[in-house]
Write a structure and sequence with these properties.
The structure is a homodimer. By secondary structure, chain A is an alpha/beta fold. Chain A contains 15 helices and 15 strands. Chain A folds into two domains: about 100 residues, Urease, subunit C, domain 1, CATH 2.30.40.10; about 290 residues, Metal-dependent hydrolases (TIM Barrel), CATH 3.20.20. An eight-stranded parallel beta sheet of chain A has the order 5-6-7-8-9-10-11-12. Chain A has a seven-stranded mixed beta sheet with strand order 3-2-1-4-13-14-15, with no helix packed on it. In chain A, helix 4 packs across helix 5, helix 6 runs parallel beside helix 7 and helix 12 packs across helix 13.
């Protein structure tokens, strides 16, 4: 048994609360054992039986559930930093893409990289995520767009899940775009996905979810329907990249298919939002993509008022969101999605867990939940997300083990 | 003599270059001795006389001049995190201010804090800045708005300058706003500034610059003219907070007064920009204030094309920019001010140095300049500002001494 004491604020983030209520306990304590939360509450109610246990003085810091980044494209070859510079010099994305840049360059670099190269690179990002307090991520394939390379990405994830503390929940995104070699026979690519790749991914247990990018430049709704129908048949959970660059009915489609989540949604309409609310679809907002692409932020307030849950994730990828800094995404969600700090914290914990069908197990600090715990050097949720710092995380527990050593600042946070 | 070798990119940032050219040397080396840069160039041209010196292998990282944050309000009492939450819940700033919040709450908390309390708190921020690679900052008073409390802030800066490695360049901003007790006799406050405080600050050598906030809710141009005329007479350099919330002719006024810099400028007009360009006024852009306040970003491209220099700084303060993360401000300046990574780097080094009249001494990595050097764990300027991470700084030299221990990642950055 391990006890955390002297916690200024502890956010329990129960899945049953409305999103605006992070279930905050002031002056709290928490006990965990055998990888699970055993007790949580105000410190003055800590049961006597826990008083002799190993304990850590949190020095009036904040304790939250381990953060969950429920939308990343973790594994990719190359970067696109030169493209970032070119776009700032006025070059258009279309021209960059025509010259071999854009997503095509990432596909090409990913195809030519070895499993070892891809793993070593993704491992650096995972280590950076863990330092920030992230304990679980969702990660997508989708830069292979051919059998071997898609499976290679998913294989990287399987290996990395076993190699380091952050849990990886895998999503097959063969339907990220139609690869060049199928541009004139796109039906063949959809058939390859439905008849070969999806059944193979499922049979080999390489992913838990299947995602499809519904967009003018990616897949139409009829194509996406074929793909997700095959995925459902194969027993995979469903996700949709919807309404990112324009409104294409992606939100309604996600609701119709019973997808667990719809991602992006920058251009979702009122009726799309209502359909998702009725279907219980989780909206996954990706503020870093809005930042880097200079496109509108998601209408989170409309979604919350319609009764939807809104998750907050990074979209980490080399093109539209080259950052895995989830706390930055969270501060952006406050400012630009007009979500309160509590709503955002819930969006990166229990709601993010719901987007990967894991809210019964992670994302909340309640007895029986996995002991994934992040300690933040800040006296409150409000102060943490308001005062953006490089990294305010001062310790991480994963499944009951300290995986980032507990190191509270020598001086307490000064008000 | 100390030599840095195996540098992937070194940005010299000469003051004489146009802003788009950071003076990059690939595969560089740099030598420093007695607190000054002794030699810089391609490593294969490193003079033989340096080959036996103490050397550090930079492992293909990036080396830049120590960053300069040329606009901060470092010293303040309290925070305004609860106000951040209230605004996100729909409360208007005017109502929050009427209830005792807003800048008034910071003035009140700063007035009631002791020098020791203010120093300890500012010291935490300075330590965080140094970790990020910042070696010099400008810092303003302006939360006292009465003789004792303004002098108290400047005294905090004097003490902190001596206590830790980051250099503090001080600006008197008694003209931040008219304090409550002078609302019905604002002329008296202007007289207090001109006849008492400015001469006192100058005589006691408490600041190098005088700044005035020109705005409907702060000071009119005729008032600001009186204040800066007194400041000029007292031998202080001039700065202007101009055109932040609306266009009030602040840019023209800064040019007319011969101010070294005009800050904010979110609403500067074409004629204001031309006036500043003709006068050689530096524009100090503050992207974090635009982010947190959701107001337009500065028209940096228009300014650069008009021949102005555009600095990039944080505006760190508890209300409109509660973050001292200069690299985040820099990435925002790329994305939202459409400046290239090189332009932004120059804006946070030699142009920032110019905004504090120090470009002959700091902000460039050229022989004879102070050896303020920041090592960044990234292969290039483009990659660094594109791939936002918590903190990519892996070592800092201040005046020839390692003040952040050199610690390159064990694994090189993977492309």
């Amino acid at each position: 048994m391990t006890v955390l004491r002297n916690i200024a604020q502890l956010a329990t983030c129960p899945a049953t609360n409305p999103q605006q209520d992070a279930g905050i306990i002031e002056n709290a304590a928490l006990a965990f054992a055998n990888g699970e939360i055993a007790w949580v509450g105000p410190e003055n109610q800590l049961p006597k039986r826990h008083s002799g246990e190993e304990s850590f003085d949190c020095r009036q810091q904040l304790v939250i559930p381990g953060l969950i980044d429920c939308h990343t494209h973790l594994c990719f070859g190359g970067w696109r930093d030169d493209e970032f510079d070119l776009r700032l010099r006025g070059h258009r994305y279309e021209d960059i893409a025509a010259a071999g840049g854009g997503i095509r360059s990432t596909v090409s670099a990913t195809r030519s990289a070895t499993i070892q190269q891809l793993s070593r690179k993704a491992l650096q990002a995972l280590a950076g995520m863990l330092e920030l307090g992230v304990t679980t991520i969702e990660c997508k394939s989708g830069y292979g767009l051919e059998a071997d390379s898609e499976l290679k990405q998913l294989e990287v994830y399987r290996k990395l899940d076993a190699q380091q503390p952050v849990d990886l929940i895998r999503t097959f995104l063969g339907a990220h775009m139609v690869p060049d070699e199928f541009q004139n026979c796109r039906d063949d690519y959809v058939r390859l996905l439905c008849d070969t790749l999806i059944p193979m991914v499922s049979a080999q247990n390489l992913a838990e979810f299947c995602d499809v990018f519904v967009d003018e430049n990616a897949f139409s709704i009829p194509e996406a329907r074929q793909i997700l129908t095959a995925a459902k048949r194969a027993g995979l959970g469903l996700k949709v990249h919807a309404d990112q660059l324009s409104n294409g009915g992606g939100a309604q489609f996600a609701a119709e298919m019973g997808a667990i989540s719809a991602e992006h949604l920058e251009h979702a309409t009122e009726s799309g939002i209502q359909a998702m609310a009725d279907a219980g679809t989780v909206a996954v907002s990706l503020p870093l993509a809005s930042l880097y692409l200079r496109v509108p932020y998601i209408a989170a307030r409309d979604m919350l008022e319609a009764g939807m849950k809104v998750a907050v994730a990074t979209d980490f990828n080399p093109g539209s969101a080259p950052s895995y800094h989830l706390p930055l995404a969270m501060t952006l969600a406050c400012i630009n999605q007009q979500m309160t700090p509590q709503e955002v914290l819930v969006g990166a914990t229990t709601v993010a867990a719901r987007a990967i069908c894991a809210e019964q197990r992670i994302g909340s600090l309640l007895p029986g939940f996995t002991a994934d715990i992040t300690v933040i050097d800040s006296p409150s949720v409000n102060q943490w997300l308001y005062h953006f710092r490089a990294n305010a995380c001062s310790g991480v527990v994963k499944s009951g083990q300290w995986v980032k050593a507990f190191a509270p600042q020598t001086a307490p946070f000064l008000r």
